[in-house]
Amino acid sequence: MAEPLFKNTLRYCVRCCQPETEEGIAFDERGVCNGCNSSEEKMHINWEERERVLRARLEAAKEKFKDRAWDCLLPMSGGKDSFFQGYVLTRIYGMRPLAVTFSHNWYSEAGKRNLTRMIETFDLDHIMFTPKRGLVNRLARKSIGAIGDSCWHCHAGVGAFVLQVAIKFNVPLIVWGESAAEEGCRLSYQESITRDVFDEKYFLTMSAVREPDAMTDEHIKARELEPFRHPSAEEYRAAGIEGFHLGDYVFWDEERQTEFIKKEFGWEEDHVEGTFKRYKSVECVMPGLHDWTKFIKRGYGRASDHASRDVRAGIITREEAFDIIREIDPKRPEILDYFLEQTGLTEEEIVERVKQLRKGAAVNLP
Fold it and tell me: In what order do the strands lie in the sheet with 242-245?
């Protein structure tokens, strides 16, 4: 019978495959994690009632901004979630979103085609910001030791730039994608739907971890980090910004949604390093590195995340999931060679810097 990779070092949920090193995880008296309990909670939500609330909220926005060019903001990467968001907002609810993309500057070819396809399919006005390659390389190098992965610029920019656009163009309603409860163990569905403040504190907690000033050094100047700075709390409140996750009001099923956009609109999957899924983060060339460093830091990678979701959904057994995880999570990603070339780091330096960020039970990982 397949067993966890670090069964003698880490405690694992007895139902899925997530270890105690996952951010925000908690186990109940049965040994079941809060992620599993949240997935159970999802099945008992009155989604028809939530959809009525969503419809009323969007209709109010359409009426309020009927004389404006846009009635909401749509953060988009062209990935599976934002593509589905575009479909729901424009085709089902008749919204007029201004689409906003913060580019990580690591777009895959499939990702570029999906982004263009989304803009053209849903006839979107679109703003895109791409930080220069040199800055991305320097931030990625710094990011390894600062937060344990290569992607600080993306974690920070996705939230900050969208909020900057909301204020600059006076489009205060932001419709994000999947629920924060859908990914990981940090929030339940009941907690997620009550949150409508998506300011700097939220994005620091959920992903960025470090403020821009903490990323400056002799190679990264404070003035270069303007696109990554969130509006102040005063600016945020004065602009009347509101936001919500579409997945808190619509039952989110990424497998079925992906099949739908593939069939109806030609959205493209491709090989994605670090997982057995062909759709998650397909727009980026770097997820394999991100999830390999996560494995070094916490003892699990994205294959664990995706396998646990499939176990919760009844698609595979827990034993089958651990077989998949053993094969994929520890695997050195091919993109690492490119990353080393771009940043000047060595593989040994990356491993050592990431290991220094281990906490709790992860300190005892090999």
Answer: 125-129, 97-102, 72-75, 173-176, 242-245
User: What does the buried/exposed string (b/e) look like for 111-140 if buried means 16 or more CB atoms within 10 Å of the residue's CB?
Assistant: bebbbebbbebbebebbeeebeeebbbbbb
Contact in structure between 172 and 76 (CB atoms under 8 Å): no
What pTM does this model have? 0.91
Determine if residue 197 is left, alpha or beta; phi over 0 gives left, psi from -120 to 50 gives alpha, anything else beta: beta
Q: Which contiguous run of DSSP H or E holds residue 97?
A: strand 97-102
Q: Roughly how many angstroms between the first and final C-alpha of the chain, as a whole number? A: 23
Q: Is 89 exposed, middle or buried (0-12, 13-18, 19+ CB in 10 A)?
A: buried
| Residue pair 166/239 in contact by the 8 Å Cβ criterion | yes
Give the domains, in start order, of the chain with CATH numbers: 47-248 (3.40.50), 268-357 (no CATH)
Under the banding of pLDDT at 50, 70 and 90, the label for residue 186 is confident
pLDDT band at residue 200 using 50, 70 and 90 as cut-offs = low
User: In angstroms, what CA-CA distances link 329 with 7, 24, 97, 308, 333?
Assistant: 15, 20, 38, 13, 10
Q: Which amino acid is at 180?
A: A
